[in-house]
Give the backbone structure.
Amino acid sequence: MNIVVLVKQVPDTETERKLDPADSTVDRAASDGVINELDEYAIEEALRLKEKHGGEVTILTVGPEQATDSIRKALSMGADKAVHVCDDALAGSDALQTAYAIAQTLGTLEYDLVILGSESTDARTGVVGAALAEYLGLPQLTLANKVDVDGTSVKIQRQTDDGYQVVEATLPAVISVVEKINEPRYPSFKLIMAAKKKPVTKLSIAEAGIDADKVGLANATTQVVDFAPAPPRTAGTVVKDEGNGGVLIADFLASKKFV
Amino acid sequence: MDFSKDTVHEDIRQAVRDLCAKFPDEYWMKHDQSQEFPWEFYNAIVEAGWLGLTVPTEYGGGGLGVTEAAIVEQEIAASGAGMNGCSAVHIGIFGFEPIIKYGSEDLKQRFLPRLVSGDLHVSFAVTEPDAGTDTTNLSTFARKVDGGWLVSGKKVWITKAQEAERLILLARTTPRDQVAKKTDGLTLFFAPMDRERVTVRPIPKMGRNAVDTNELFIDDLFVPDEDVIGEVGKGFKTILAGLNAERVISANAAIGIGRAALRRATNYAKERVVFGRPIGKNQGIAFPLAEALIKLDAADLMCQQAAWLIDNGYPAGRQANAAKFLAAEAGFFAADAALSVHGGYGYSKEYHIERYFREARLMRIAPISQEMVLNYVAEHVLGLPRSY
């Protein structure tokens, strides 16, 4: 079974993340790039499926030159090879354009499953999986916290607020995962050394079959009109305990729907 | 001179950092206090394949050098694990040089793969109550018997002897008054830890308490001929194989402790507000931290040069000793500055600085004292007359 994992490089959430005021895109120089956290779960799940069913795990990344660091990490976790679509024309592409670019690139690959994180920590649109499935005309199984493949079908547990749904589809399919699905492995020393020798295919948009008129900031279907930093935290409410402190705290938590 | 980024080194650094992040300061404080060996950490290091980094690939190891082992140890120490973390895995990452360089094929086949898989625990048993740096004065004696040797004597400062299955043990096989050179007549053994024959007594100590340090009383311990490392009578040369490398790797641990202390102190100086402003605004607080960073970075560069020389087969006595000296001073300076920045809280267990401080102090006496480093440089680099 051949699995393609979509890996996005995002600004490290541990550092101060910024948007570039000039064009409202992510300021990539402002912080270190890391693998989008949920994508690590996607990689882990792909590796586990490969260990069970055989086949190959391919990392697919659409992103700038510096995304090679994240691709190398994904290969160090144990993926077999990678495809990196890297082209200045892609800069500023929105979620739909990214899904289109991925769909076009997938057309050049053989796969039974596409796995991705359910959202990224930078844009947090959470729509790439759905848009991709639409472009490809494939079933989409979202928010998976468990994946089982049986022959030509795949069954997932779809996480909901109060439990899960079991959803089944035929292969090939697109699956998005949540963090409850597994515990991603660390790159082991041997795999780090082996990753150096694994093939990474770098594609321009032309080589990936992507139409230049359909990607990039100028052609984006959505636009960031304005942005502002979160307001600083306010002082909060001080409750004086006059014997009824417990009740007041409970009331406060209830008013915020915590209890 | 090429200081461009080496992606393998960066990946090693990041992978060890990610692994260590699962073992926060609280884990190390708990183990330092309970004096329990950090098994969870050890097993995680084994599982990720970091043991046997320098073991040749044909025995299942990583085939890398001092440069990479140093990165691993600095990252472990810098995570806040300090010497508790480094000492738990040190021999596994870099303690087998005598066997790798001088051991028989049989010894290598039998033991190197087990070192990599992590189930072989070993102690370095060289120093004695009356022979620390003065190695040739050691009195542990191995007497030839049929098929092997019978070893008797005392050893002290033996790390991990509670867990060890084997000892890399140096003993006299010819009395000192019967050899031409006092460095002759010593033999290195890969001795089985027969607890019927070796009494192990832990030494209560100031810091690094998650990993035991012991006295050994050895009484007629049998070591078969095939477990001799290198040539009989040439044990001194055999043991020297890894000493410069060990200095550089230990130096990296010292730098790591300094970086951990500096990180905590810097965060604290940004957050702690006194007289209505963060204390880091005071140059009396800020300057020692800036100086600590400069000292750590300078020591790091010396370490990198020494590691490169060793890995490329050049003599490195001068650089390895300098690296050890600078790193131990820089690590201690940083820990001390961090303590000052924290004030009274620095003295409390809760902020972890006191633990770093105790361990940073260790690095000025181990694996060799700063004074013996100066002796080396005075005598062997500057050509001054020997003082002892």
Notes: The radius of gyration of chain A is 21 Å.
